[in-house]
Design brief:
This protein has 550 residues and is of the alpha/beta class. The chain is 26% helix and 13% strand. The structure holds alpha-D-glucopyranose (GLC).
């Protein structure tokens, strides 16, 4: 047993050849439940991922980020974790996860896992113990249990608003059936918030990090990273809180926690990274998480939220690079993820920006326009300095699926009273091959229904088509991989007019995107490296990106 543990502890995250790998990596996001189904039960699994590793190798990615793969009742797609040291049984086993990490490494692909510090599942042993132990018990101190207000305690302790709409407190029932204390949950009632002022919570998470780093995992994505610490006085939400003074967002105490995590990561060889999911508008507050002794990178949702506009996108890029510069961290470029509307659908809409509170059923889109723009956006972000994320299926140009209400599982849908379609529309299982559902996803259907016309989007169909979205992604990532200019060349803006966005990387490479409605002429160049749509008589047509060899 001891020897086994020692061997594991020595598992490298990757060859030592590229310590700053994370500064320019292309990271592919796998939503396991919807990626590939190896055992034919209609749910994606680790066997499916292992079988498709060659696909990811051919795509040209450096790492995979897995959404939570732990045992979970799936009240929030796995962001309700019941055990951080095992694998959700329908996905496979811990041994399979260990094998997957090593097989991926054998192909030069690192693994990043998702850690959820803000809350656990209500089925987690700690929460079950807290419920059983009752008011005033040490078990309850690991969470935010609190008596209600008012004479009979029937009013919730605060009126904080959930990230999923609605209230953030649920009342418990005492063993004798009488109403008991309330507990805090910034998301669903099945996701009780942990009390990060408690030493057990901190110790436990550092231990979980070691558990996975010992298994060769190269990094962690930190879920809802600006939320875990709460003001123990539980005040109501102030109208305009001073920076750091919000009772449950972006509190200064968080930085000490992440410094502790960074120290754990730095104990390991091969640069194990911390990637924060940090939704904050204040650029300076955002950058604090990226100081040299904290996280390595954080998701850049500012750019992802921009509509299709040269001016707004240019401003966002400039702002992003400027906010990262003082802390020396690379920017990340994200077009979507498992929470947001697919780019081809979004960019084909009149309102092409992204905001959770604007999600509705039945918003029209022009998929031809959206797809053209998503192709241009892919080349644009692949040319920017920093890390690039690709959410599974975006490389196939999959549209958002408007699912029938009766199959939707996402709590965001239910908690909006059915107004918000929720996030399942971007989580529909991938089409791999064939003319009919489940399109090679597996041998036994798919947990969410795939549209009948997805035969045109299968990996097999797109591999055979040099003009497909998949071919564009492969070509772009292959070029990016061997281009010194794209890896480390400085960015310099080009004057390409108000409706276009152009910049040079290093000496020789330029990326120009036309977001206007008229073709634009190109600066002098030696050759065209890649183009998201054919040039028209040497000019760059609307909704197109070109990479030029200057
Ligand atoms: C993050 C995840 C999202 C999840 C939420 C609660 O925002 O990306 O999917 O629902 O945290 O854990």
């Amino acid at each position: 047993m001891d020897t086994e543990v020692q061997t594991r502890a020595a598992a490298p995250a990757a060859p030592q050849t590229d310590p700053p790998w994370w500064r320019h990596a292309v990271i592919y996001q796998v939503y396991v439940r919807s990626f590939a189904d190896g055992n034919g039960d209609g749910t994606g699994d680790l066997a499916g991922v292992r079988a498709r590793l060659p696909y990811l190798k051919a795509l040209g990615v450096d790492a995979i980020w897995f959404n939570p793969w732990y045992p979970s009742p799936l009240a929030d797609g796995g962001y309700d974790v019941a055990d951080y040291r095992d694998i959700h049984a329908p996905f496979g086993t811990l041994a399979e996860a260990e094998a997957l990490v090593q097989e991926a490494l054998g192909l030069g692909i690192r693994t990043i896992i998702d850690i959820v510090p803000n809350h656990v599942s209500d089925q987690h042993p700690w929460f079950q113990a807290a419920l059983a132990a009752g008011p005033g018990s040490p078990e309850r101190e690991r969470f935010w249990f609190h008596p209600g207000r008012g004479e009979d305690g029937s009013e919730m302790p605060t009126h904080w608003v959930s990230s999923f709409q609605g209230s953030t407190w649920t009342r418990t029932v005492n063993p004798d059936g009488s109403p008991g204390e309330w507990y805090l949950h910034l998301f669903t009632p099945e996701q009780p918030d942990l009390n990060w002022n408690h030493p057990d919570v901190r110790r436990e998470h550092e231990d979980i990090l070691r558990f996975w780093f010992d298994r060769g995992v190269a990094g962690v994505r930190i879920d809802s990273a600006a939320l875990p610490v709460k003001d123990p006085a539980l005040p109501e939400l102030p109208t305009a809180p001073a920076p750091g003074a919000h009772p449950h967002l972006d509190r200064d105490e968080l930085h000490d926690i992440y410094r502790g995590w960074r120290a754990v990561a730095d104990e390991y060889d091969g640069t194990r990274i911390l990637v924060g999911e940090v939704w904050l508008e204040d650029a300076e507050r955002f950058a604090r998480y990226l100081r040299p002794d904290e996280m390595h990178t954080a998701f850049n949702f500012d750019f992802m939220s921009q509509p299709w506009s040269a001016e707004l996108m240019r401003r966002s890029i400039a702002r992003t690079l400027a906010e990262h510069a003082p802390v020396g961290a690379p920017a990340t470029w994200v077009l979507s993820n498992h929470d947001v509307t697919r780019p081809v659908t979004r960019y084909g809409r009149e309102d092409s920006g992204f905001a959770f509170d604007r999600k509705r059923f039945g918003v029209p889109t022009d998929l031809a326009v959206g797809t053209r723009r998503a192709r241009a956006a892919a080349l644009l972000v692949a040319a920017l300095p920093g890390t690039m994320y690709v959410y599974q299926g975006d490389e196939l140009g999959l549209p958002e699926v408007e699912l029938p209400r009766e199959v939707i599982e996402d709590p965001m849908h239910f908690r909006s009273g059915g107004v918000d379609p929720g996030r399942d529309g971007c989580r529909v299982p991938l089409p791999w091959a064939g003319a009919a559902a489940p399109f090679g996803f597996g041998a036994g259907g798919s947990w969410l229904p795939q549209p009948a016309d997805w035969s045109a989007y299968t990996v097999a169909a797109e591999e055979a088509d040099p003009d497909s979205m998949l071919s564009l992604y492969r070509d772009a990532l292959a070029f990016r991989r061997q281009s010194a200019d794209l890896r480390s060349g400085a960015l310099a803006w080009l004057d390409v007019g108000p409706d276009a966005l152009g910049f040079r990387r290093g000496d020789r490479l330029a990326s120009i995107t036309n977001l206007g409605s008229e073709p634009i002429s190109l600066p002098p160049h030696r050759g065209v490296v890649l183009c998201s749509a054919p040039l028209e008589e040497g000019a760059l047509p609307p909704d197109t990106t070109v990479w030029l060899d200057l």
